[in-house]
Each structure stands twice: as structure tokens, then as C-alpha cells.
């Protein structure tokens, strides 16, 4: 037995020694390529197999932001991408650390975000064994645009193809790096000079087919969630140019303030059917409003995007440069937008009056109290649906994780949005279940670099599920669907060393952008949403 063990160890050491010399030069090339892509930040999880890469990034001056939970790390990177509008690396060791990036990779893919997942892996000669922390990392991210298994310079062509796909199509890539035992290796030394920025190819789109739109006498523009690279200033110019009524998703706060825009997609859908228009110009992707999905399923919808898929299957869909629509010649038209918007505001006031402690009341009170330009992050589930009914004049930009529309990673994304230094304050509005799901991420609060306030809506569970028909028929509905609870999160968050207060009256909401968390104890929000819908259907909110 001793002879066999000696022989196996001797062979392993021989392979390791040979690959070690090769891998250092190859790591040098890899990290410099990544730096040349404009990467300035790397979010990293703990582990030893990735230590050579950590050391290399440090030498290149890339900002390293470590955290213990890879699921948090992935969503933190997503938040940073939203803040800086450039690629961000997330780096993990091998094994289940890689698996924990799956939710963030899914969100990045569906939101067209340039997330670069670099995962350390065991060398190929250890694959298929029971060696510690060795799993199959091939194809682990089904949503990655390209997967590169980096061993040496032979993969350079595929690496360049991955970067091109990430830039041109928008979305994440996966670079899996096979590395030897870090304990046996000397740390790599990298010279950070002579790194030339990559010249990024311009996105190419087809010409805009315009005949149907230009002959329309009664058109409407519907703008869903837009790709992250789209210039909102240009879109505002486009709305001025087309001069049709506009319906805008809640994720586009600035466009919703346009004079021709409806403040509520739901109210628009109640007021109008698709047959009221001879041309429906649909730009972008998904919507918060489910009613818009029904509206946009009409045969005469023309969909244009720079990459986003329509929220429903449409017969006419083209990828174009949105700016090409500025060449359109349309017939100007205005319908009763002002009246509908006034009715929406009256419906909101009536709903709040009926239940002063509802979710909507706390949200409106908080948003109305801010008298300076600010950014806003709205979490999924009920908060985003309530927010979709509002038009706030002081919001500079809205951030959402609507790619996969999950409640996971919301707090981590907020922390990522706050890691880059800026004087623009951020108000984040999140639900209780989203906060519990991502509780670890609150530990990052001490490291944020911008004025921040997190408003935590605690209505005792997933109140949005109260809208389901089974809410009145299922005996165990509260336990099995709503996940009802009596948690108070302020004591837990306070134990993390965070400034946190509890608020039980919407009139007492005090938004201070000083890394502060406010837990709002509410009566729920589903009922307020139902009341709004009833008011829209009645067509009169008085």
C-alpha cells in the first residue's frame, strides 16, 4: 500500500509543478484582459482556491469588496453595476460557493447586466473524483451568455467572444479558472503597466420600419422596462417628438413625469382598450402591471427594443436603435390624460384615508417628505406594485430587480448601489419577507458610501398573496402562502450595530439619509391596491 500511495503522490506533484509555471503567466493575461474591459470593482466570497486571482486583482488596483455569503456577493455586484454602469466581477472559490451565485446570474441575464462571474475550480485531473470541494462547474449557470474554461492562452479567442457578447447583448458571462493547490504555489507578481482599454464595438441594429406608425391617426406609446444602457434624456426627446399619449412602467420614473404620460398603467388599461388606438408602439421589455400584458397582446402592437423581449408574444417585433425613432413623422394627438391622472391621485388619497396605516400611506408619506432629488430602490412583490401607481417629481432614478422579479438579493443590491461614493441620497423601500430572506446583507451597512435610508414595510408576511382567490377558501392560507409572522426586525437589525427605529404611524415617518433603517409596522397593502383598482374601474374616485 505504501508504494502505491507514494506513486500517486509523485505523479500528482509532477503535474502540479508543470502546470504551476504555466498558470502564472496565464493568470497574468486573464486579469489584465478583465482590467482592460473597464472593470474597477470585484466583489468576492471567502476561499483559498481563488487566492491567486485575489492577489492579482489587488496588484492591478481593482477595488476588492469581500463578504462571507456568495449569494449576497452576487447581488451586491448587481447593485454596483446599476450604480456605475460598467462591468463588475464577482469572484468565488470552488464548490457550493459557485452554486450560490445562480440567483444573481439569473437576475443579471434577465436585466441585461454585465456581471462577470469568475469561479475558481479544481484542475481537470481532479474532476470526477471525490476530492474536497470538487463539483461539476461546467454549465452551472444556464443563463450565462458564454462560459469560458480558462486554463491557458488557448482560450483567448473564446474569452474575447465572451466579452463581445456581454457588451453587445447585455448579460453575464462565466469564466471558470482551473487552479492548482494554492498552498503549494508562490503568489503571482503582476506588473500593472501597459494595459490598454478594449475598444468596444458599437451595437448594430436594423433600420426602423416606420410605415404603420407614420400613417396612424390615433397612436399610443407604451414604454416598459428599458435596457440599462439606454439614454433616458434621448427617450424624453423621443416622447416630445412623437407627441402621442404615453404609458410608462414604474421603473421609468423620469419618463412617467412627461406631460403626455399616464401616472398609472393600471388606470390607463381600465380607461382604454387596445381597440381605442390604430397604432400601439411598444418599447422595451417587462411591466409591473399585469393589465399591460393583456393590453399589449393585441394584433396591431409594434414592438421595438435594443435587446429586451416583449412581455407577451407579438407578431411584429424588431431590434432597433431607439434613437432611430426620432426620424418618425407622426400625427400629434392628446386624449384625457390629465383627467385620468387626477382620478388616480384622488383614488390614492381615498385609499389612504380609509386605512391610514396601510403600506401605501407609509410610502406616500415618505416619498412626499423628501424635498431634494434622490434615487429610489423599490423591492419586488407588493412595494413595486403600489409604487407603480405613483408619480413622484423629485425622484432622479428608480432601481429595481425586475429581471427575474424575485425577492431574493434586494438588500444586497441596495448595499451594492451604495458602495460607490455619491452625494445623491438613496431611499430603499423593501418588504419584510425580502428583508428576512437577505438579512445577512445588512452587515454591509457600515461600508456604504452614499446617504442611505432603508424603509422596511412590515405587514406581517407576504400580503400580496391576499389578492389570490384562495385567500378566502384555503384553511391554511396564512401559513402556507402568506407566510404570516409576528417578527419585529428592528431589534435584529439593531443588534448588527445599525441605526434603526420603529414607526407605527405614517405621519411620523422621518426620512434621514444617514445609513438609517425605519421599520414601518403597517396593516398591509393588498387591500389598498384592491381599492385603487375598484376606483379605476368605477372611473370616478370622488
In short:
Helices cover 35% and strands 16% of the residues.
Structural account:
α16 links the parallel β15 and β16 (452-458). Helices cover 35% and strands 16% of the residues. The protein starts with a helix and ends with a helix. By secondary structure, it is of the alpha/beta class. It has helices at residues 2-36, 51-59, 70-84, 96-99, 102-110, 156-169, 211-214, 232-242, 253-256, 265-271, 290-295, 337-354, 359-368, 382-387, 410-417, 432-437, 477-482, 489-495, 526-538; strands spanning 41-44, 63-66, 88-92, 115-121, 147-150, 173-178, 219-223, 246-248, 261-262, 279-283, 301-305, 316-319, 374-378, 395-399, 426-431, 452-458, 499-503, 516-521. The strands form three sheets. The chain has a six-stranded parallel sheet with strand order 2-1-3-4-6-5, sandwiched between helices. Strands 9-8-7-10-11-12 form a six-stranded parallel sheet.
Q: Would you report the number of β strands?
A: 18
Per DSSP, what share of the residues sits in E-state strands of 2 or more residues? Answer: 15-25%
Number of helices, counting only DSSP H or I runs of 4 residues or more: 19
How confident is the prediction overall: mean pLDDT? 89
Amino acid at each position: 500500500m505504501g508504494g502505491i500511495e507514494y506513486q500517486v503522490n509523485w505523479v500528482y506533484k509532477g503535474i502540479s509543478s508543470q502546470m504551476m509555471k504555466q498558470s502564472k503567466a496565464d493568470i497574468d493575461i486573464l486579469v489584465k484582459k478583465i482590467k482592460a474591459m473597464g472593470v474597477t470593482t470585484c466583489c468576492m466570497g471567502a476561499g483559498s482556491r481563488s487566492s491567486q486571482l485575489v492577489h492579482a486583482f489587488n496588484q492591478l488596483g481593482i477595488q476588492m469588496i469581500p463578504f462571507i455569503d456568495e449569494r449576497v456577493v452576487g447581488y451586491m455586484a448587481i447593485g454596483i453595476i446599476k450604480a456605475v454602469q460598467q462591468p463588475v466581477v464577482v469572484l468565488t472559490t470552488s464548490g457550493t460557493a459557485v452554486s450560490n451565485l445562480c440567483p444573481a446570474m439569473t437576475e443579471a441575464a434577465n436585466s441585461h447586466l454585465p456581471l462577470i462571474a469568475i469561479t475558481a475550480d479544481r484542475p481537470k485531473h481532479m474532476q470526477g473524483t471525490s476530492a474536497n470541494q470538487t463539483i461539476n462547474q461546467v454549465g452551472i449557470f444556464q443563463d450565462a451568455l458564454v462560459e469560458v474554461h480558462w486554463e491557458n492562452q488557448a482560450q483567448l479567442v473564446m474569452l474575447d467572444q465572451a466579452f463581445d457578447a456581454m457588451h453587445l447583448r447585455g448579460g453575464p458571462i462565466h469564466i471558470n479558472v482551473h487552479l492548482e493547490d494554492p498552498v503549494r504555489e508562490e503568489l503571482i507578481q503582476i506588473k500593472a503597466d501597459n494595459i490598454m482599454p478594449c475598444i468596444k464595438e458599437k451595437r448594430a441594429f436594423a433600420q426602423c420600419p416606420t410605415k404603420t406608425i407614420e400613417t396612424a391617426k390615433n397612436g399610443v406609446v407604451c414604454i416598459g422596462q428599458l435596457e440599462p444602457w439606454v439614454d433616458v434624456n434621448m427617450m424624453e426627446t423621443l416622447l416630445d417628438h412623437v407627441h402621442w399619449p404615453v404609458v410608462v412602467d414604474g421603473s421609468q420614473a423620469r419618463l412617467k413625469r412627461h406631460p403626455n404620460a399616464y401616472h398609472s398603467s393600471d388606470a390607463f388599461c381600465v380607461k382604454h382598450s387596445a381597440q381605442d388606438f390604430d397604432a400601439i408602439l411598444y418599447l422595451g421589455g417587462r411591466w409591473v402591471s399585469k393589465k399591460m400584458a393583456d393590453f399589449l397582446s393585441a394584433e396591431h402592437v409594434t414592438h421595438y427594443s435594443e435587446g429586451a423581449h416583449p412581455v407577451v408574444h407579438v407578431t411584429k417585433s424588431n431590434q432597433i436603435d431607439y434613437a432611430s425613432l426620432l426620424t418618425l413623422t407622426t400625427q400629434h394627438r392628446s386624449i384625457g390624460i390629465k383627467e385620468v391622472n387626477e382620478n388616480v391621485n384622488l383614488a390614492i388619497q381615498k385609499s389612504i384615508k380609509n386605512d391610514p396605516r396601510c403600506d401605501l400611506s407609509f410610502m406616500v408619506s415618505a416619498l412626499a417628505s423628501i424635498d431634494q432629488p434622490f434615487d429610489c430602490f423599490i423591492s419586488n412583490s407588493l412595494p413595486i406594485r403600489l409604487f407603480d401607481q405613483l408619480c413622484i417629481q423629485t425622484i432622479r432614478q428608480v432601481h429595481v430587480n425586475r429581471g427575474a422579479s424575485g425577492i431574493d438579493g434586494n438588500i444586497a443590491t441596495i448595499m451594492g448601489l451604495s458602495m460607490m461614493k455619491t452625494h445623491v441620497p438613496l431611499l430603499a423601500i423593501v418588504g419584510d419577507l425580502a428583508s428576512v430572506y437577505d438579512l445577512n446583507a445588512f452587515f454591509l451597512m457600515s461600508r456604504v458610501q452614499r446617504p442611505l435610508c432603508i424603509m422596511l414595510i412590515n405587514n406581517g408576511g407576504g400580503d400580496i398573496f391576499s389578492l389570490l382567490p384562495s385567500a378566502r377558501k384555503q384553511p391554511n392560507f396564512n401559513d402556507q402562502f402568506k407566510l404570516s409572522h409576528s417578527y419585529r426586525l428592528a431589534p435584529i437589525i439593531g443588534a448588527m450595530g445599525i441605526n434603526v427605529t420603529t414607526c407605527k404611524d405614517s405621519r411620523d415617518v422621518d426620512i434621514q439619509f444617514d445609513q438609517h433603517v425605519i421599520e414601518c409596522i403597517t396593516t398591509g397593502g393588498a387591500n389598498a391596491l384592491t381599492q385603487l383598482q375598484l376606483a379605476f374601474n368605477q372611473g370616478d374616485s370622488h
